[in-house]
């Protein structure tokens, strides 16, 4: 490690100690049986698939037939102790009362072979599902890196008991439901504590992981932790691939200054229930106040993931506007990157065009431009390196996104080949050193889109499926706006109920926000819309049409109740704010217009059935008729006027109040 840091600091020293191999001899481990055509043994449950693999036998057999052969890619050098290995295999018997099984298991380790058989107490298995186990005695032997380790299972004979048509026995492996495994005791991993490297008052402790599993030893392991003097280092380490070994490096700033002896211990959980650990003492000498280089700086390209992935924040702003009868979408996407991915990008910026060290394809293809050797590998990201990165990304962004970031560029930032203009800029967020610090990648674009055609705002497909995830979780925030004459029509969230959508419509435009937190690459969703310039969808057009329908309908309704009670109609005017409220919450324009028309018909129906309030207008003047015929009262001889031609008729005498009946 001295050679890694020496070119960059005159204060880098190594501790007075050598690398210490602290682990491990043979350990008890469960090697899972996985695979369908390519059968393998692995300690990592993450390699189990969703569906099981199987081998079935539908007729009785009397001669040996293979079930399967599983193997490790290669053994790890060391001593395999005298022990008993055990195979556990899941099975199902169907359409028979049971089956008599005679099964053998052959284990090959290097040049030695060991065989075990199914015990007599397990040879009859009843109908249904269960698990059989076979013990294989193994003698002590030495293995090297080229030694074969394989397991072969063979059915020597199978006889069904009370079989029906379709009698079958089937053996399963390779899934969480059927996690068949080989319990073994063998060497798997070497853990080495490299001699510490001191830079001023900072000390770098590295754990070297060597195993037959390569990157899987880091990606699929449960955890790895380092303690210095009994205190766990909680900062994220840096991971570097060095040949077939993995270096995991922690930075320690707890030195007391001067010479001291520190105890360093590592704890590595290969699989659940199997933790490998070791420790060593190192003599170090530190110097106060000089560890300001920003942390460990590897000579080789750092890993992009520790197997768990880095956090990602995706912020997208969209603005839709009408232009010459069409639509134009302005989009700004900001990716806030942290963790191993941020460190990898910073380190890559400091090595643009570097031909002196091996680089991954995505970094090797970068053109170094005018960057000189003094700027390259300086542990500081100069403005020239940022400019070269931004300029080269104009033509290289698809490759960088897909191979470097594990993101599909067209899904997350759109097809920039159709954009009128776009720009990609990098924001180091005030930290220009090569260290594990966040940064932002910003993509601005202006793209014409077709009115009335479905548009995919975003889908979970923007994150490529990765067996070793580059991203742990991501947060999503999308802000969408439109102008008065352009509309997204609707925004549909599909396949996921955890995405929060707020969509509002104003006369001057639409506004929507979409948020999601803690999503992983396994979360699925789509966000779709249908942008348009249609007048009935445009916010200002829809508002005017809706207002005219309601105002015209209300005016006509009040004309209809000019001589009727107006109170029912006044009560139903509460529908006006209801319609405007639904318009505000951006319901479908067709629904809003239908609701406006329905409201008008309700008003008209109410106007028709409203009760009349009496004769309208001023009372008509009475017509006075003179010279009515008269009749004398037989009682008092008073003359009384006869004002009607109706016969018979009764009138009251004005003199004596006698009722006079006239019949002719």
Provide structural commentary:
There is one protein chain. The chain is α+β, with helices and mostly antiparallel strands and 664 residues long. The protein has five domains: 119 residues, Immunoglobulin-like (Sandwich); 160 residues, Sandwich (Jelly Rolls), CATH 2.60.120.260; 220 residues, no CATH class; 71 residues; 33 residues, no CATH class. Helix content is 16%, strand content 42%. Strands 3, 4, 5, 6, 8, 9, 10, 12 and 13 form a nine-stranded antiparallel β-sheet that branches. Strands 1, 2, 14, 15, 16, 19 and 20 form a seven-stranded antiparallel β-sheet that branches.
Quick overview:
This protein has 664 residues and is an alpha+beta fold. 16% of the residues lie in helices and 42% in strands.
């Amino acid at each position: 490690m001295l050679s890694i840091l020496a070119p960059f600091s005159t204060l880098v020293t190594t501790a007075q100690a050598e690398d210490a191999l602290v682990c491990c001899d043979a350990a008890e481990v469960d090697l899972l049986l996985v695979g369908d055509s390519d059968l393998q043994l692995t300690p990592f449950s993450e390699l189990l698939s969703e569906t099981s693999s199987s081998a079935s036998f539908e007729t009785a057999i009397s001669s040996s037939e293979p079930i399967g052969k599983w193997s490790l890619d290669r053994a790890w050098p060391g001593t395999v102790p005298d022990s008993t290995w055990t195979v556990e295999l899941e099975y199902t018997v169907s359409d028979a009362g049971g089956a008599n099984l005679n099964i053998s298991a052959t284990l090959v380790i290097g040049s030695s072979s060991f065989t075990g058989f199914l015990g007599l107490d397990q040879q009859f298995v009843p109908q249904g599902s269960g698990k059989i186990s076979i013990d294989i005695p193994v003698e002590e032997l030495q293995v090297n890196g080229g030694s074969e380790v394989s397991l072969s299972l063979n059915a020597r004979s199978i006889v069904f008991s009370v079989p029906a048509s379709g009698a079958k026995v089937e053996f399963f492996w390779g899934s969480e439901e059927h996690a068949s495994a080989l319990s073994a005791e063998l060497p798997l991993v070497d853990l080495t504590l490299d001699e510490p490297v001191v830079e001023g008052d900072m000390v770098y402790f590295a754990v070297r992981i060597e195993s037959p599993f390569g990157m899987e030893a880091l990606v699929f392991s449960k955890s790895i932790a380092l303690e210095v003097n009994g205190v766990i280092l909680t900062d994220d380490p840096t991971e570097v691939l060095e040949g077939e070994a993995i270096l995991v490096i922690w930075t320690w700033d707890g030195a007391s200054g001067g010479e001291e002896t520190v105890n360093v211990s590592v704890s590595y959980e290969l699989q659940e229930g199997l933790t490998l650990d070791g420790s060593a003492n190192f003599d170090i000498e530190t110097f106060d106040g000089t560890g300001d280089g920003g942390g460990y700086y590897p000579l080789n390209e750092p890993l992009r993931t520790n197997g768990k992935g880095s956090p990602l924040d995706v912020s997208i702003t969209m603005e839709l506007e009408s232009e010459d009868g069409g639509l134009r979408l302005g989009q700004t996407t900001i990716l806030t990157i942290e963790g191993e991915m941020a460190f990898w990008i910073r380190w890559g910026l400091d090595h643009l065009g570097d031909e002196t060290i091996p680089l991954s394809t995505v970094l090797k293809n970068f053109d170094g431009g005018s960057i000189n050797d003094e700027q390259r590998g300086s542990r500081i990201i100069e403005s020239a390196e940022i400019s070269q990165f931004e300029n080269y990304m104009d033509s290289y962004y698809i490759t960088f996104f897909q191979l470097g970031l594990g993101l599909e560029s067209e899904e997350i930032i759109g097809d920039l080949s159709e954009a009128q203009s776009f720009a990609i800029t990098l924001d180091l967020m005030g930290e220009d050193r090569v260290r594990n610090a966040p940064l932002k990648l910003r993509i601005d674009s202006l793209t014409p889109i077709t009115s009335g055609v479905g548009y995919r705002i975003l889908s979970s497909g923007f994150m490529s499926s990765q067996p070793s995830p580059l991203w742990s979780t991501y947060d999503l925030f999308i802000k969408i706006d439109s102008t008065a004459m352009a509309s997204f029509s609707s925004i549909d969230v599909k396949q996921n109920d955890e995405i929060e959508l707020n969509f509002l419509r104003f006369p001057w435009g639409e506004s929507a926000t979409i948020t999601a937190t803690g999503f992983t690459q396994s979360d699925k969703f789509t966000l779709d819309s249908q942008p348009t310039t249609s007048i009935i969808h445009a916010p200002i057009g829809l508002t005017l049409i809706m207002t005219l329908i309601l105002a015209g309908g209300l005016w006509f309704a009040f004309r209809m109740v000019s001589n009727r009670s107006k109170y029912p109609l006044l009560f139903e005017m509460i529908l006006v704010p209801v319609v405007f409220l639904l318009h505000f919450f951006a319901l479908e324009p067709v629904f809003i217009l239908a609701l406006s028309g329905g409201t008008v018909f309700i008003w008209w129906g109410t106007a028709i059935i409203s009760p009349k309030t009496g004769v309208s207008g001023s009372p008509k003047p009475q017509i006075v008729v003179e010279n009515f015929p008269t009749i004398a009262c037989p009682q008092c001889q008073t003359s009384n006027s006869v004002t009607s031609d109706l016969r018979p008729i009764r009138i009251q005498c004005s003199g004596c109040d006698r009722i006079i009946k006239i019949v002719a």
